[in-house]
Specification:
The chain is an alpha+beta fold. It is built from five helices and four strands. Strand 1 and strand 2 form a beta hairpin. The longest helix has 20 residues. It is elongated, with a radius of gyration of 19 Å. The mean pLDDT is 91.
């Protein structure tokens, strides 16, 4: 016979953990690993002085209900590069090992 167990979540405490500096640092490391994988692909884009490596930025924030990290292709043709190569989507596995 199964025993019924009741638990009461401390929602405020869970929210504090989800926004904590420790969680943000873990997410930052995972975002940097994804960005490194994107950079390692060696994709170059057209720019004013000539072809440049695809600029990738990583931004981590603790605002809102939880910490989050954004990895952006910081170039006007970033969306086209993602559509053609799927570089962000294929680099997401790098976060598992970070």
């Amino acid at each position: 016979m199964a025993i019924r167990v009741r638990i009461k979540l401390n929602r405020r405490g869970i929210g504090q953990v989800l926004r904590s500096a420790d969680v943000q640092s873990v997410l930052q490391a995972k975002g940097e690993a994804v960005a490194a994988a994107v950079r390692a692909a060696g994709i170059r884009v057209d720019d004013e002085p000539g072809d440049i490596p695809l600029p990738v930025t990583v931004v981590t924030t603790g605002r809102g209900i939880r910490a989050r990290t954004y990895v952006n292709l910081n170039h006007e043709s970033g969306a086209a590069v993602e559509a053609k190569h799927g570089i962000l989507a294929s680099s997401i596995d790098a976060a598992r090992d970070a």
